[in-house]
Write a structure and sequence with these properties.
By secondary structure, this protein is an alpha+beta fold. The protein folds into 3 domains: 272 residues, no CATH class; 84 residues, no CATH class; 81 residues, no CATH class. 58% of the residues lie in helices and 8% in strands. The protein contains 20 helices and 10 strands. The strands form 4 sheets. It has a 4-stranded mixed beta sheet with strand order 7-8-10-9, with helices on one face. Strand 5 and strand 6 form a beta hairpin. Helix 16 runs parallel beside helix 18. The chain is globular. The chain starts with a helix and ends with a strand. The model has no long low-confidence stretch (mean pLDDT 81).
Amino acid sequence: MQYGVLFILAVVVFLPKLGDRQIVTSHEARVAQTARQMAASGWPWNAKWIAVPPVKLGTEAGGIKRLQPQWTQPPIWVNPWLIPVLSGQIRLQKPPLPYWCAAVLYRMAGVPWSERLTRLIPALLAVFGTLILFDLVHLTMGRTVACCAAVMWVSTYFIAEQFRLAMADPYLAFCTLACLWMWVRASLATRQLIPLKLFYFFLALGVLAKGPVIFIPLGTGIIAYHICLKRPWPRSIAGHSLGSLVVVILVLPWVWYVWRHVPNVGEVWRYESLGELPGSDNVEKPRPVWFYLPYLFLITLPWTLISIAGIVFCWVRRRRRVPLFPLCWYAATVLFFSLLPVKKNTYLLPIMPAQVMIGAVGLAALIGTVRRLPHKAMLAWVQAGIGIAGGVTAIVLAAKVHQIMAFVLAALSLASACGALAELRAHQGRLWMWRQTIAYILAIVVIFDFFNAQRDNQRSAQPVCQELITLMQQTGQTLAPGHVPEEAALYLPLDLPLNRDATSMLAIVDDPKNQKQPIPVDFADRVPWRKIVAVQRVPMNSAPDNARWKVYRLQLAGD
């Protein structure tokens, strides 16, 4: 029964309206555009090879190492399923699993690409991750804490936001959770062969999703599990041997193929993965050591107060050792990530299972406190206040987007949160938890399906790209090939014509600050084989002076 309820709640949170929000960030655009190129070439076994410029290892501004295209050299031909291609250039900064998943869906659906299909697999991983998390916590901390962890998983804003985006991090987070789940099951089972093989299978998928970074959150989780719970390590030689073979079969062929066909790719992979270790040469996104500290309170919304209480309860009950498992896992991983020079809040996504496990300890303790205390009026008001805050937030967001359905959902969210007071005063803490979860879920639905969708669509490059295509057809001008922003290239045809001898080309520029004045842009790398003699802003009906996307005409020198 609980599995069914949790599955329905997860579907409501993660799956609706995935395609209503247009893609406006480069992280999603790179996945979609690379997968689009794969799907356009056919299936991998009979793909149409495409011409790309050869590459060499170079260092860009700020010391960033990249495989730089050599536009003046004769092109080489590659299979885009094996050597990913982004905007006519080889793309090997990240492993290919997210591209493969999206491209397969495009081919199966018979469409060039779509926002919904690009985000479908990460959303499905979140749905099944809800059930996996429930079982993992049930095995390690009991059924009550497992139920609390699962409802916090589906109603935490950061989790819902990240798993509805087409990036590599949701794949990594799911594989980390699934690996730890199978490892725990193997340690508790008498027959360890199948769990260990599945552990290595998910490990291989994690490596194909984002490289060796999976060993950080997974390694800290496994060590914390065995130290805190004193469980035996899985000792099945056959399981470890066959599992290692699974990793080799799934990962090694692609790595070997790319290594053979792309020069200096090993240095790029080292820079992108091991280069992020302390003292390394990767300074692309340097952040201070305390960077993650404020985010630890933001990524737990709207359960922040419960999560803080969970940390306290985990430490108070440390003699039982079981609550220390998620706390040690969480603290060790955050500490390791804090020591790395490269930091982003999305890097914390793989550790969110530990975060909700800590919060679940606090939530379970809160429910137990409601049952035991003789005078519960003040506690009930505090708990109901937490719920009402979620409903009020939904009302405010609904007022911003002016949608009737948004007001209805926000009103239901507020009513559900207010109803929590009655359950708490009647000593029904568990019923309060379910009402509170529904209130937060409704608030999340309002935020994603109305506010975020409208906000992102206003920043999308789709309207200006459609007008730009019409302009190119009318004037015969072509788009300068270098450095087309991925968010814009996604809404342009894949095979745009290019006249290298033209004396005039168009360029589209991303101006995230929406400045009215012309922004300083160096267009030299857009057309490296010709000299630019003049730059003129092209007025676009869909892009006023203060719009994010701007179009320029480049006047090139003749031969």
